[in-house]
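Thread: quick sanity check before group meeting

JM: Hey all, I'm pulling together slides for Thursday and realized we never actually wrote out the predicted structure for the chain we discussed last week. Dropping the sequence here so it's in one place. If anyone has concerns about the input, flag it before I start.
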Amino acid sequence: MLRLLLNWILSALALIIVAHVVPGFYMRGFGTALWAAVVIGLINATLGALLKLITLPLTLLTLGIFWLVINALMLWIATAFVPGFQISGFVAAFVGAIVLMLVNMLFRALLPKRERD
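JM (edit): ok, ran it. Output follows.
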């Protein structure tokens, strides 16, 4: 449970970082980022998973780059459900998806590994 809470907070923090780095990516505050992290997670777990499955051949042809397009679309869709979260266009969503992926990778590298019993 503690790990889930930590991941949620780190996801929100990653969104705040992206909003400060990527032009056209706007997040009102940390509360908005927390809400956006939940919505993005739900969208990725449902619609995102379905789209990734359907577009798997295209993803293989592009060596995985098409998943960034899908991630950008998921971010863009999330803006419709989270007041205070805005992305000005697809390019900002695409760059935001790349930066978000990199920040999340950095956070995962800094977190201690889970111990398996």
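AS: nice. The chain has one domain: 2-109. The CA atoms of residues 22 and 91 lie 10 Å apart.
JM: adding both to the slides.
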